[in-house]
Amino acid sequence: MRVFRWRPLAVIGAAAALIASASGCGSPSITGAGLQRDFGPNFAQLYLIQQQLIGHPDAVADAGMHTAICTRGGPETPDRGAGTNWSCQVYWPSGPGGQTQTLSYEVDVKPTGCYTAQGPASLVGQQTIRAVDGRMVTNPLFEFYGCLDVG
Amino acid sequence: MSTWTVYRWEMEKLAALLRVRLAAGACFVAPFGFAVALRLQDAVPADTLFGEWVHLSGFATPMVLLVFTSQWALPLIACLVAGDIFAAEDRYGTWKTILTRAASRTSIFWGKSLAAMTYSVLMVALLALGGLSAGELLIGHQPLIGLSGTLIPPGQAAGLVLASWGVAVLPTLGFTAMGLLFSIATRNGPAGILTPTVIGLLMQLLALISGADLVRRVLLTTPYNAWFGFVRADRYYGPLLWGTVVSAGYVIGCLALGYLLMRRRDIDAG
């Protein structure tokens, strides 16, 4: 009755073939619109945490900081799908004279829907920053994470 | 003998196995080694979710550990027992002995399957508690930055860490059932242990190269990510619900197939 030993392998092989043939179907649910909806508020919240750490507990994130513009690659690349070449623009309020500045994060979006964003150290600070109590702590804005609901 | 008797008997055998004892010890102690390594260096595993926050909050330790282990370690740990539990009877030639001790095939199947599932749940629990206590003792219980950029207070963070690991139990049980199936089908311990682990790795690879959501949704590795939806301020539970359905599908499918193979097997000839 050794013939039965290969039956589950055949079933799994068939299932794998079915999955592979279905690979072309379905649409990726990672989009620029979805990413910027998540990215903006994420950045604004982390900005508040950073300001608290460095001793500005009164800092506020205005509506503009919740707004992000996320695009992928060059103009010819459609703004959807996982990839390392995403970038998100957000606003930084502490320019000279209270002016807002635009800053751009490099964003790596994984097929799981989770992303890692790295900001320009010149504006958001280095990986570790000096907290109000003098300790060196991780800068929440240097690099941060988020996840999109990809179902 | 009833299923319950077989189950207790299998649990006693498992508790005596060196392989099981080592796995249990490693699951609880390894997180401490991991936390010590994180403490001793400035570098952080920044590419991993929560990796950037390992010095900021001790609750990041069990989360990074969850991301790391769910890549391949959890399927392997689960199948260390499940993949061998039926094949061991072939290796020692003991099928006839246990079947003549008035235990039916059905009760042996369910007793062994339940024992393997219990072991898997215990290992996940040990890793979760090990990670949580290592982070708490070696790094501290500062608030954790969630996936939506908000600070999660320590009590809630501890609950979310345990919930995330709880979610990891579901696909781990799926891999356990797969291990049981291959243990019955191949009658070979190493094949039963390694085949589901390799399938898990292939699934990770498939999720990585395939842009299609349909494919990603039916893979058993995807439910490991279901916690992404709730370690944040504005939660979503779609992936958790679907992940539960997918994990249950794998458990039921593999167990049903394993049960059929076991019922049909000709022990006298085998």
TrEMBL record, chain A:
Print the keywords alphabetically: Signal
Lineage from the top down? Answer: Bacteria, Bacillati, Actinomycetota, Actinomycetes, Micromonosporales
The keyword Signal belongs to this UniProt entry's keyword annotation? yes
> Signal peptide position in this chain?
1-22
Official protein name in the record: Secreted protein
**UniProt entry tagged with the keyword Signal:** yes
UniProtKB/TrEMBL annotation, chain B:
Task: State which residue ranges cross the membrane.
Answer: 20-40, 60-87, 108-129, 157-181, 193-212, 240-262
Q: Which UniProt keywords apply?
A: Membrane, Transmembrane, Transmembrane helix
- Per the record, the domain of life is Bacteria
Q: Which Pfam families match?
A: ABC2_membrane_4
Q: What name appears for this protein in its UniProt entry?
A: ABC-2 type transport system permease protein
